[in-house]
Amino acid sequence: MTTTVNPRAARDTTPLAAGQPRPDGAPGHGPGPAPSSTSTTSEPATLTVVRRKHVGRWVTAALLTFLAAQFLWSLATNPRYEWGVFAEYFFAPAVLSGLGLALLLTVLGTILGFALGTVLAVLRLSPSPLLSAPAWAFVWFFRSVPLVVLILVFYNLGYLYPTLGLGTPFTTDYWLVEFQTTLTITAFAAALIGISLHEAAYASEIIRGGILSVDAGQLEASAALGLPATVRFFKIVLPQAARAILPNAFNLVIGLVKGTSVVFVVALPEIFYTVQVIYNRNGRVIPLLLVACVWYALITTLLSIAQYYVERRFARGTSRVLPPTPLQRVRGALARWWRSLASEGTTAPPPGSAGSAAAAALATETQGVTR
Predict the structure, then answer these.
(1) Is residue 267 classed as helix, strand or coil in its secondary structure?
(2) Furthest-apart CA pair in the chain: how many Å?
(3) pTM of the model
(4) The pLDDT value given to residue 40
(5) Which of 32-41, 217-226, 339-348, 359-368 is most confident?
């Protein structure tokens, strides 16, 4: 059997001299240097980078700065603010007592409201109409009635029902438990019940929205693993839903801090009612209202700071590198300032000294906190 070899397909390994043609007609290079192909590429011209001028941004910033400076100047020079009266009553025992009552109503209303709101959210997500319909009716009613009206209704509940208790159904024979409504539902109890039910209606919608934001695949995967319903809810669904729940939940709590001022309608001596009583006696309306405003601002500021750190902690599962905290930003700015001084020839700590190690640690810390 004879095998035919195509001379063009065969590879000739015989070395060729410089300039000698290959057997297939292609020019050979031999041991000499291969011809280099030269391509002419024109270098791009140097472009001048012109920074964009944000005229509107600078004008707006200048206008806001002017308005802020004008307001601060009026605070310092207007004698009608009566800062002496403000300082006199800012830490007054009656004001601090009213502040404590407002905080107590906020804490209790938040705990009871979110506990009941969680139950309502779960009931609303139930496929059974026997559970979801009453939960929907509860949310509809208590979101429709203003908070001040709820407090007044519960405060005057004794007019409708002088006595309440447990006994024979559809009768007033309370043979098991009976109590006087006017003695049991005091002003504080009426305020707490109204605030808790009002908060529960809004909290249930916040929690329900957070639960619905969890990917359905998480529920399907956990159900396929045979995990109990309670484990799926508390270990898988709720931690993921917390990222969507927290911003709105803190917003609701901050609103509740200021909403406690409506309990003055039942003569509860919280901070707003207290300053009202004081300025009705001495006529110093503006400085005493400023006392209440500053205390409300301090409480909401602390809650906003807590919200930032809580949200940052729950964001660890969604971001590989967390944004630096305000303290880390300040420390990073100080580290960059120290490095700039060293680069300009200012005396810098030796490489192995404690100051150099501290500056390096500050620079590393500001790059972000890895998960």
Answers:
(1) coil
(2) 126
(3) 0.73
(4) 52
(5) 217-226
Q: Which residues pair with 369 in a beta bridge?
A: 322
Taking only the tens place, the pLDDT of each residue in 307-352 is 988 888 887 767 677 777 878 888 888 888 888 888 765 544 554 5
Could you please report the per-residue DSSP string of 145-172? S-HHHHHHHHHTHHHH-SEEEESSTTSS
**Contact indicator for 136, 148 with CB cutoff of 8 Å:** no
The DSSP annotation for 177-230 comes to EEEEHHHHS-HHHHHHHHHHHHHHHHHHHHHHHHHHTS-HHHHHHHHHTT--HH
The amino acid at 291: V
SS3 state at 321:
strand
Q: Whose CA is closest to 179, among 192, 197, 195, 166? A: 166
The string over 284-310, giving b where at least 16 C-beta atoms fall within 10 Å of a residue's C-beta and e elsewhere, is beebbebbbeebbeebbeebeeebeee
C-alpha of 187 from chain center: 34
Residue 297 near residue 289, CB atoms below 8 Å: no
Q: Cα separation of 70 and 200, whole Å?
A: 43
Alpha-carbon distance of 336 to 39, in angstroms, equals 46
Give per-residue pLDDT as tens, 36-73.
544 455 556 677 877 788 889 999 999 999 999 999 99
Tell me, what's the pLDDT at 131? 93
- Supply 62's token pair: 């200048």
Q: What is the DSSP letter of 19?
A: T
On the question of pLDDT at 173 being above 90, the answer is no
Contact between 269 and 92 (Cβ < 8 Å): no
List C-alpha distances in Å: 66 to 15, 63, 75, 79, 333: 86, 5, 14, 21, 27
The residue among 179, 181, 192, 191 whose CA lies nearest residue 116 is 192
